[in-house]
Design a protein that fits this description.
By secondary structure, the protein is mainly alpha-helical. It has 3 helices and no strands.
Length: about 70
């Protein structure tokens, strides 16, 4: 198992998150820890317009069902 996530791994994470799968489910499929998956999201999330206009910058904050991931 390599140390870093590949582009394929990231695409799989994106696909499963779109299907509302849990971090633990995704981690089992990728043979990684759930913490690795949550860190990947936290470190590589997308922001709206590149600047802060609310307390939650996430591009999907209105429809997001996952809480306490973004700072």
């Amino acid at each position: 198992m390599s140390k870093h996530l590949t582009l394929t791994d990231r695409a799989i994470i994106e696909k499963y998150l779109a299907q509302d799968m849990s971090f633990s489910f995704i981690a089992k499929r990728l043979n990684r820890s759930a913490t690795t998956i949550s860190r990947e999201l936290k470190n590589h999330r997308c922001f709206v317009n590149g600047f802060r206009y609310t307390s939650n910058d996430c591009i999907n904050y209105r429809s997001c069902l996952r809480r306490n991931i973004c700072d």
